[in-house]
Design a protein that fits this description.
By secondary structure, the chain is an alpha/beta fold. It contains seven helices and nine strands, in the order βαβααββααβββαβαβ. The structure holds 6-phosphogluconic acid.
Length: about 250
């Protein structure tokens, strides 16, 4: 389902609204809410809104468990850390118990970090493939999502829940949830903003299926909902089947 909003602010309010709604529903039916956050610039405003007076009180934080879709293996205080961004924009401002925040910890090498993260997932979800209540994702200019990059071997991973990734052009390593894990979520929400994303978005949604080239095409929930939350600039050429302004939220 596509939701097209006027601008980044409205898109962020919509995403914060989804977080609130899914958290309340999950807690009402299963007693807890497990969400995987995305890095990148787009979700930052959503996280800030969730920490604001308008949204903060509506989330049952004592039942929320925060995970991440991917992480760069950098020191905790490095500005490239997805956990740091979420901490600064959201987590330090809300009453979430510390033990319910599950960052991807790259203490050793990234291969070890991916295994440690998979163990953390197993402790929380049990033996079966993790079933997140909500996964936020972004879309990179090259069609990547989380740290599932074009032509990387992780795209073919069908067993592991999390994997390490090394891109030849980067001096750091990464850890990512695999498509298998993401696709098992109850709800997956892509947040895509800005005119710079229109071309790749059209390719991912309307072009031929080439998941090695366009990894975002791998994301197809096996038994869940998929939503694309777009701003008008990114949605150029994509027929939105819904248009809401922030006043409707
Ligand atoms: C990251 C991501 C990555 C991101 C996209 C889109 O850690 O950077 O998880 O997949 O979501 O690159 O990023 P923007 O929101 O900055 O466009």
């Amino acid at each position: 389902m596509f939701w097209v909003y006027e601008d980044g602010e409205d898109l962020s309010r919509a995403a914060a609204g989804i977080f609130v709604e899914q958290a309340r529903q999950a807690v009402a039916s299963r007693g807890r809410f497990a969400v995987a956050l995305s890095g990148g610039h787009t979700p930052q405003r959503t996280y800030e809104l969730l920490a604001s007076d308008t949204f903060r009180e509506r989330v049952p934080w004592e039942r929320v468990h925060i995970f991440w879709g991917d992480e760069r293996c950098v020191p905790k205080e490095d500005p490239r850390s997805n956990a740091l961004m979420a901490w600064q924009a959201l987590l330090q401002h809300v009453p979430i118990p510390e033990e319910q925040v599950h960052p991807i910890q790259c203490i050793s090498d990234s291969r070890g970090a991916a295994e440690t993260y998979a163990e953390e997932l197993q402790k929380f979800f049990g033996e079966n493939t993790p079933r997140f209540d909500l996964v936020f994702l972004g879309l990179g200019d090259d069609g990547h999502t989380a740290s599932l990059f074009p032509y990387s071997s992780v795209l073919q991973e069908e067993q592991r829940w999390a994997s390490f990734v090394h891109l030849p052009e980067e001096d750091i390593q990464r850890v990512t949830l695999t498509a298998k894990t993401i696709n098992n979520a109850r709800m997956i929400v892509f947040l895509v903003q800005g005119a710079g994303k229109a071309r790749i978005l059209n390719q991912v949604l309307k072009g031929p299926r080439e998941p090695m080239l366009l990894p975002a095409q791998l994301i197809r929930p096996s038994a869940g909902e998929l939503h694309w939350i777009l701003d008008q600039a990114a949605a150029e050429g994509i027929p939105g089947n819904a248009y809401r302004t922030s006043d409707d939220l």
